[in-house]
Amino acid sequence: DGTPLLLRAVVMERLNSLADDKTNNYSPRHDDDFRELLRDQSTTIHPRFRLSIPEISLHASGHQPSANMTMFAGSSETRTNTPPLTNVGGKLEVDATFDGPNVAWQNNLRAQLDRTDLDIKGQTVLPQEQIDDAVAFTEVRLNRVQLGMGSDEFHVVPFLRAALDTEITPVELLDATASPPKVTTLPRQLLTQESLGVVAFPGQMLREVRLGALMQQDLTTETTRYDAGVTGGLRITVPLFASLVFDGGYDLRYLVPDGDDGPTDLGVRLVSVDKILLPITSSLSFFIFTDAFVIGGKLPDTQDLASSLIFGAGITFAEGWKF
User: Fold this and answer.
1) Phi-psi region of 24 (alpha: psi -120 to 50; beta: other; left: phi over 0)
2) DSSP at 38
3) Minimal CB count within 10 Å: which of 78, 103, 145, 253?
4) How far apart are CA 310 and CA 273, in angstroms?
C-alpha cells in the first residue's frame, strides 16, 4: 500500500513466527531456524536481475546576438564580442546485470558528448568537442571462484570482458591555408578490446578495484592493428562534511610498444573523473567535477605525458531507474 516498512516490524514479525502456538513463547523446536536467522549472510549472493539507468544528464545553451551588436565590438562586455553559438552535451549510462552465487553477467552502455558550434560570418569554424565517447561492454565474473586477499572479508573474483570503444561523431580537421578552406574528416575511432583479470568490490567507500591483461584491435583504418598491455580501474566514494559526497573514478590503460607504432599511437591513457555531489533527492544531485585526460605515446619522441583538464558543474540522475 506504499507505507514504509520499519526494520523493527520486519524483524519482530519473523521472530514471532518462532513462538509456540499455545503459549506464545519461544519454542525450542525452532532452534535450528533461529540459528539460521543469526547466520552471517553478508557475503551470500542471491540470484537477481537488474536493469538500471545509473546516470543520465543533459544540458544545452545558445547565444544569438542581434545584427547591430558589432557596433559595440570594442566594449569590454564579454557578450558583445561572443559570436553566435550553440552548446549541447549529455551523458547516458544503461546497465543490465544478472548476479548469482556462481556467475555474474553485466552488460553496459555509456555515451557522452559535449559539443559547441560557432557561427562566425565569413569564416569556416569547425565544431569544438570537449568530450565524445561511446563504450559498450559485456563482462562475465566467476563469483564461485573467490581468491582471498589479506583477510577473509576481502575477496577478488576473475572477470572476462569484451568491449567496443568508438565515438559519436568523427574528428574533423580544418586547413585554413587552403582556398577555399578545406575540411578533412578522419575515420571514426573503432576499437575492440578483450581483458582478463580480477576484480573486487570491497565496500561502500572503496567500491571497485580491478586489474587485468588487455588485448586491443584498432579497426579505425582498413588495416587492423593489434596491441597488448594491461588495464586497471578504481572507484571510490567518500562521505564529506554535511551531506556532500566525493566520488572518484579512475581508468588506466597501458599498451606495450611494438613494431608498427606511429607518432599518434598511445602507450599510456589515464582518465580521472572526480565529483563532489550535493544530493537533492535520493536520485537527483547537483555536482561539480574535474575530468582529467592524460596520455603518453609509444615512441621515444612522444613518451612525454600530455594532459587535458575539464572543469564543470551540473545536475544528474544517479540510479534513478531500477527494474
Assistant:
1) left
2) H
3) 78
4) 9
**Average pLDDT of every residue of the chain:** 84
pTM of the predicted structure, to 2 decimals? 0.76
Of 45, 54, 41, 33, give the one whose Cα is nearest residue 319.
54
Please answer whether residues 159 and 168 qualify as being in contact, where contact means their C-beta atoms are separated by less than 8 angstroms.
Answer: no
Which residue do the cell numbers 502456538 mark? 21
Cα(320)–Cα(57) distance, integer angstroms: 11
User: Which one has a higher pLDDT value, 27 or 190?
Assistant: 190
Q: Which residues contact 319 (CB under 8 A, 6 or more apart)?
A: 52, 53, 54, 283
Residue 35 confidence (pLDDT) above 60: yes
Q: Tell me how far apart the alpha carbons of residues 255 and 51 are, in angstroms, rounded to a whole number.
A: 33
**Phi and psi torsions of 80, nearest 5°:** -75, -15
How large is the average pLDDT for residues 47-72?
A: 80
Lookup result for grid cell 535520493: 282
Residue 315 near residue 46 (C-beta atoms within 8 A): no
Cα–Cα distance between 310 and 131 in angstroms, integer? 9
Say how many residues make up the chain: 323
Residue 214 CA to residue 194 CA, distance in Å, equals 6
Using an 8 Å Cβ cutoff, are 119 and 84 in contact? yes
CB–CB of 211/198 below 8 Å? yes
Quick one: pLDDT at residue 163?
A: 97
